[in-house]
Amino acid sequence: MAEGHRITLAPEGLAFSCGEEENLLQALQRVGVAPALLAAIPVGCRGGGCGVCRIHVRAGEYRTGRMSRKHISEADETAGTVLACRVFPESDLEIEVDPSAANPITRSPTIAKQQRG
Amino acid sequence: MQKGVMRPGHVQIRVLDMETAVAHYRDRLGLIHTHTDSQGRNYFKGWTEIDAFSVVLREADEPGMDFMALKVLDAATLAARKQDLIDYGCQVETIPAGELDGCGERVRFDSPTGHWFELFAEKEQTGKWGVGDRNPDAWPEDLKGMKATRFDHCLLYGDDIDGTVDLLSSVLGFQLAEQVRDEEADLRVAAFLTVSMKAHDVAFVRHEEKGKFHHASFYLSSWEDVLRAADLISMHDIALDIGPTRHGLTHGQTIYFFDPSGNRNEVFSGGDYTYPDHPVVTWDASQLGKAIFYHDRQLNERFLGVVT
Predict the structure, then answer these.
(1) Is the pTM of this model over 0.90?
(2) CA distance B95 to chain A (A)
(3) Which residue of A25, A63, A69, A88 sits 20 to 30 Å from the alpha carbon of B296, by its own alpha carbon?
(4) A2 versus B84: which is more confidently predicted?
(5) Hey, how many other C-beta atoms are within 10 angstroms of the C-beta on A98?
(6) Three-state DSSP class for B26?
(7) To which CATH superfamily is domain B151-305 assigned?
(8) What is the pLDDT of residues B141-198, one digit of tens each?
(9) Residue A6: how many CB atoms within 10 A of its CB?
(10) Domains (ranges, CATH) in chain A?
């Protein structure tokens, strides 16, 4: 595996490696040794459509694939709020789970009911 | 078919990138790519379908479903149901013939769950692809990928599923084939509706937000074909959702995955049948794990919560 960029999740400081040709979510799944990371950044559609892997990039260079405007507005994108499944790093990155994220996974009343159990 | 509504006709799906979407629906699902229209929309059909198309892809900023259309018997039925929908209180719009290539006039209406549906009476029939209808052979040899045979149904997420069930039942003659009920909360959590012998032609799951798209589903001939679809998902690194497995609801054998824009697709085989005198099949919400994934019997947050 080619040397990747170092991706650090703030504030916990957990880190993983991601190459320039893979997206953050793919790298996160490949690592597989960081359940805390996977718990923090859910894996949804992996196509920029569902919005569950919303993160904020605090520092670093990256490029993105197209993301649903319902979940990432132009202002979000400018401010570094993106979907992990569409982010390709071009330097080391410091990321955080988007604090304002309204995660659609937890919005389902069916799931809420099951979780209340 | 008591109200002259025969079957699903087409679904228009929004995609973020047309090129990768066309490759997915054509080369992976194995739909026949029929053509591209003047607006840049791409049309597809399953090889067994007689209509000119059943899936339309439109490039947009957000993935999801624009509308699902149902075919009615004839122009008189279309006019009658249009009036019924207006009387019921739906927002109704008439889309002129030809707005979708090869399709006649469409009557578009909204629903309590925020989904848009359409009725139409006429669409060009180009026949089963590669075999025709005169001494037809069993199947054409030039199929790709999963060789999806037809667009079968959609599962849609929205808030007022009782409202949409009432609309589709009372105005369009749908029958409630199966449901999930939470008796404790006296709440219907999911509804599977049919106008045919199928277990579902369209289905709904209760969800906080209106107008969401869970999946479009395509029919395969056998469990073997579902396993072969699973192989193709691995061979091409397609985003797998869940499966291959069997549902408790409808008992279909299934696998779910995502298109490159995050819209969920299903391919499935088998499943229960429904006659008009059949009682409603009910699953208890307490058994939801088994109802959805008959073998694992475990709920999956992504399957329940991820929609476009």
Answers:
(1) yes
(2) 26
(3) A25
(4) B84
(5) 23
(6) helix
(7) 2,3-Dihydroxybiphenyl 1,2-Dioxygenase, domain 1 (3.10.180.10)
(8) 999 999 999 999 999 999 999 999 999 999 999 999 999 999 999 999 999 999 999 9
(9) 15
(10) 5-116 (3.10.20.30)
CA distance B158 to A38: 28
User: Residue type for B134, please?
Assistant: R
* Identity of the residue in A69, A105, A109 whose CB atom sits nearest the CB atom of B306: A105
Distance from CA of A114 to the nearest CA of B (A): 8
Residues B218, A37: Cα–Cα separation, whole Å = 35
Catalytic residue among B33, B115, B153, B214: B153
pLDDT of residue B220: 98
User: What angle is formed at CA B83 by the lines to CA B80 and CA B88, rounded to 5 degrees?
Assistant: 125
What share of residues in chain A are helix, strand, coil (percent, to 5)? 30, 25, 45
**Interval B38-92: pLDDT, tens:** 999 999 999 999 999 999 999 999 999 999 999 999 999 999 999 999 999 999 9
Judged by CB atoms closer than 8 Å, whether chains meet at A43 and B302 is answered as yes
B200 is catalytic: yes
Residue B161's nearest CA partner among B115, B196, B116, B195 is: B115
Query: Under CATH, which architecture does the B5-123 domain have?
Result: Roll (3.10)
Do the Cβ atoms of A54 and A107 come closer than 8 Å?
no
